[in-house]
Model the fold of this input.
Amino acid sequence: WLSLKPGLFYALMTLHGAGMITAVVLCGMGGLWYLIRREAELDARIAVWAWALIAAGVVAVLLSVFPGQFAAGWTFLYPLPFVGAYWPNWATGAFLIGVALITAGWSLWCLQLLAGLLVRYGGWRGALAWDYVLHPMRFAASGREAPPPQAFAALVAAVDGLLAGVAGMVVGVALLAHWVTPSLPIDPLWAKNLTYFFGHTFANLAIYMTVAFVYVGLPRYTPGREWHTSRVLAAAWWGTLLFVGTAFFHHLYMDFVQPESFQVAGEIASYLSAVPTAVVTIYGGALLIYRSGMRWTLAPIFMYAGLVGWLIGGVGALLDATVPINSQLHNTLWVPAHFHTYLLDGVVSFILGWVFLLLEERSGKATPLGSRWAVSLTIFAGSALLLGSWFVSGADSLPRRYATLPPPGPELSQWASIGLIILIAGYLFCGLEAARLAMAARRTPQRNIGIQSVEVPS
Amino acid sequence: MILRNLSATRWALVALVLAAGGLPLILGPDPVTVPEHHLQHALLLIGGGAVGFLAYPPHSRSGAGCGSVGWLAIGLFAPLMIMFQMNPATYAYIEIHEAVHTFDHLIMEALAALTTYAGQRYLRGLGWVTGAALELMALLAVWGYGVVIG
Done:
C-alpha cells in the first residue's frame, strides 16, 4: 500500500539486513557469554570491548544509510558498492568500516570464548568431549564430567565464528583498500565466495548460539528432567562444527564458473546439517517435553515454538539447497521466507523465551492465560501469514530484493503486510507483559527464587 | 648441552627469518606475479609466527587461566595491520625500492611474531589459533586481493 522510492527501499533493505542479523547475533553473544561464564572464567572487560566495537560498527552502518543512503545490500557484494553508486563515496567507506568493526568485535568474543572453554575443559579433547564419546569407560573412570550442552553451542560458535571472522576481515580489508585506491583490482568471484562464507556463517551461528537458551531453559519447566550431554549430543555437535562451515557452498550453485566440487559439497553439507538439528535438538526437545508435566508459561511456549520454527524454516532451506529446486527458487522470495522463519520464529522466539524465563524467575509470576493466548496467537498467526505469503511468492517465482514486484507480488505483499501488522501487535503485547513482569520482579523481595515457585495462573 | 643447542637453534631460526625478509636487498627486484608475491608473504609470516612461539618462555605457567586483555587485542589486531600493510597497490613502488621492501617484510615478520606471541601470552596454545588465522588470511589473499584470476 505504501510507495517507496527505489533508493529508499534499497537503503532500508540494507539497514534491515545488517541491523537485524547484528541484533540477533548480539543477543546470542550476550546470552551465551552469560551461560558459559557460569561454567568458566571469562573476563567481563573483554565482553564489554567486544560489545563496544560492535556498537561503534552499528553507528557507522547507521550513518552510512542515514544520511549516506548507502544501498548496496548488507552483502556489500563487490563490485556493487563501487559501480553505479548514487550515494556519496564516504557512505561506502562508512558501511565497510562499520562491518569491519562488527567483525572485529565478533572475533574478539570468539577468541575469548574459545580460550575460556579450552581452559575449563582441559584443551580441545575436553571441550569436544572426545574421550567421553570415543573412550567412555576410561572417561567414566577418570571422574571427569563432560561439558554441558550449551558448551558445545559455544565451541561451535567460537570456532566457526572465528573462521567467518577471518573471511570477513580479508574481504573487508580488500574492499577498504579498493575504496582508498579504486585502481586496485579485486577478483569478483573471490570476493563473492568470501563475502558469502562470512555472511552465511555469521547469520547461521545466530541460531546455534541461541539454542543454548533452550538447552538450559526448557528443562527448568519439565520437573525432574534435564537436558544432559550424551554421546549422541556431543557427536552431533561435531557434525554441526563441520557443516556450519561447509554448508555455505549452497550459495554458489548458480555460479557456473565455480568448481563442480563446490556445488557437491554444498548439497551434501546442507543436507547433513539438518541431521544433528533434527535428531538431537528438535527431537530431543520434543522428548523432553512429552509427558513431562510441562508448565506452559510464555517462556517454554516461545522456546518450543522456536524449535518448530527452526524445523519449518529448515525444510524450506533444504528444499532451496537442492540444486534442481534452487534453479527455480534462487533469488526468489522463497529465500527471505525461509531465513525469516529461522530468525523470527526460531531465533527471536528462543531469545524471547529466555527473556521471559528470567522475568518469570525473578518475579515469581507468570502471564495470565488470556494474555498467553493473545501473545501466542498474534505472534504466531501474524508470522505465519507474513512468512506464508513470502513462501507462496517464492514458489510463484517472484524475485527477492525488488523495490517493485511484478504481479501477483503486490497482492501477496498486501497479505504479508497484514501478517506483519498482526505480528507487531503481538510483539507489543509481549513488550507490555514483559514490562509488567519486570515491575513485579522489582517488587519481589527475593531474587532468583527459582522457577518452581512461579505462580502459573490458569 | 641440550639447552645450549636449543638456544643456538632458536637464534639460527631468527637469523633465517630475518634473512628471508631481507631477500629484496640481497637479490634485488624479483618479477613475480601478485599471487606469487602474496604466497611469498605467507611464507614470511610462517617464519615470523615461529619466532613468536620461540620468544614465549618454554616453561612458563600453563593452563592456569587466561592472561591480560591486551594480549588478546594484540593477537586480534596485529593480523589486520599486516593485511593493510600488504596492500597490493603499494607493490609497484615497493618492488623497485629494495630498502623499503625489506623494511616492509621485516615489519610483517615482526607483526606475525607478535600475533603468535600475544596468543600464547593470553593462553598457552592459543598462539596456534591466532597464527593459523593469520596464515589463513594470507593464503586467502592469494586468489583475489589485488588480482583478478578469472
